[in-house]
Write a structure and sequence with these properties.
27 strands, ten-stranded mixed sheet, Spore Coat Polysaccharide Biosynthesis Protein SpsA, Chain A, alpha/beta, Rossmann fold
Length: about 775
Amino acid sequence: MSIAFLFDMYQRVVETLLPPDSRRRYYCQLVRAGIRGIWNDCCRASVREVKNWLRPRFRFFNDASKKVSVVIPNYNGQRYLGECLDSLHCLDFPRDAYEIIVVDNASSDSSSEFISSNYPDVTLIQADRNLGFAGGCNLGIRHSRGEYIVFLNNDTKVDAAWLRELAATADSDPDIAIVGSKLLFMHNPEEIQNAGSYITTGGGAGDIGFHEPDIGQYDTSRETAAVCGASMLVKRKLIEEIGVFDEDFFVYGEEIDFCYRARLRGKKIVFNPESVAYHVHAGTLGEWSSFFTFYAFRNRLLIHLKNSPVHFLCSVLYRYGRQAAYESLVKGVHKKIHLKIMVSVLTKFPKFLLKRFMVRFIIKKENDNKIMLRLTQVKPKVNSSKVKKVCVYNAFLPTMGGGENQTAQVIAYVNTLFPSASVDILCHETRGFSKSAFDERNFVQMFENNFHIPLRNTQVRFVSVDANPQTFISNLKRLRKLSSITKEYDIFINNTFTSLVRAQARINIFYCMFPQKLDYPINPLLMLPAKRFFYRFLKSYQLFLANSNYTQRWIDRYWGVNSHVLSPPIPQLKASVNHDRDNVIINIGRFFAAGHNKKQDVMIKAFIKMFKKGWVKDWKLILIGRKHTNEASTKFVESLEKLAENYPIEFRYDASDEELKGLLDRAKIYWHATGFGENPDLAPEKFEHFGISTVEAIHFGVVPVVFNAGGQPELVNNGQNGFLWNTIDELMNYTRLLVEDDHLREQLSESAFAFSRTFVQERRAEQLRWYLARYYEWRRPEHK
């Protein structure tokens, strides 16, 4: 029996039996009894039941019978609708799997008649008034039948693969709840309008890559804080969990609010650059009109009033107060708009407090610190010429491997972008390298000779720290000393594997080879300080760069921060490939026993099998790389040499640069096996993070046959410019195919060489320039 029914019955009894002057006392008793009853019911109910009771329910008119519903809100957009709807009828997606819904917000330009006459297969829903973007989308959602609902602006047109790519990303992971497209300007498609959206530590939001030339700097699929509502896929299940767009926003910011709620729910928001739409920016209402300005500023405050933790909300309100006072009292602009904003926010304050309760206590499942890591840090821009001191941190210089190649490239970028700045390479003793490994070695010259990169204004800065900290306290002291050194620099770039140095330069960049998993101590007393330490470490960097898509995916999983891919380039491009080659299979990789071991033993065993079968009788396997000198690595090398005895297998431990180039110029096949036999979920760091040696090999026209894991699938398109193998039999069979078919091998060689030319050093430097454009100003480069 419900409380409402009991209340009604009790009220009737009181009114029938008692005189009016005696009823109030009984009503008070009733209220007290009702409160006690509700409290007892809530105490008996589980937290989940209470949350389910309080969570808002959204009513769909239809069950999900389609894969996708494309919902287009329209207000006086007839001039755009034809091009938009025509592009939706040319999609590379089964027509019976998606429906098109246009919600007309009481347009006065005959939009409805235009759709009815020309597009009979489009579902037209006519609102009796202008519901705004949020209300129009919500009305479309109610009538939708799709498992996925895609919101699309009426002033867009889409590529053929647009919907297929959105759906494929949504299908790839059940935790992905929202997917966004790359938006290019309709009238200038070589320029980016949105490559994902950001929310700043100041409370604002914006478009990643806005007005940047599209040179591939955002061409990797990645998680973002939010995506643009002009082209956005949302899973139906998410709407059932967190509700729909908030109609109190009317226009602008509703998708940021929606994405914020999804993040608080613990869902992933992913940007897919392969899904491309062309957009007339602010085509309906015009950018920075008084209408636009009011809703942009007001809705920013409402977003954080509704969703953000108290300390961040207070920070946003304080920043807005300063901005409003400065614009109104000092600059004398937007006075009426700011006054109108304050009145509107105060009017909606009680209602949004209830919404805040709903979001923060019912919907929210994710930790606020994790959400805050996705925020873009706000700093005032400075002229790039003011950068005088840059520090690049690499603790493993003596290895002179792929990571050190990456460090050399970073210094070359700095020389290009900040020509007047001096560069210090920060290094120190480690467990593997004592001070003697650094003494009397000219690392700058080694960089130039090994990696063919001329470096300017560069020197090595060696500091004394505890090379082998045994306790948490000693390790903390070591990290604090390194952290204090970073204060001296304008830019600090951390390029050290598994480094946890908290950076304190003006701008701090973590160029990640592979992220360290931030494991928390089992001891509960250390759990809280460790979480605080890791959070402060991550928050100290303004920009995270990954050397590959593979590394970026694990940055998302391990660290939960925004990142961009900046893959190492080829410093010197060859004009053509050599066709006069020897019967040689080559591999390049250091010889060591631990970590992401290069699996030379796997390749040796495979070659011996092929040799015994008679497939490579007149061929040779050459393994090139430096030897690590620790005991385990020495034993590993000895076992390899013993295994290779009596077979045409050579080891080149100290090959000169000229010798290496000569071998690459004449070898036919390149092998790579790093990660074979390892668990990709338990030990992802043991796979090839990028594969710079593979890039070098294909640039010389050597056909790659590499293990299908880690960063290698980003470099090799199976059957197009090489082969990807999963088993030893596949490695052997692909190699045999190349051995026996010279025509196929030469075709793949040319394709591999052509692909390698995309790794241009100048383009990578320009990518970094755009990533840093939020903090530095350069003279805008000209683009062809």
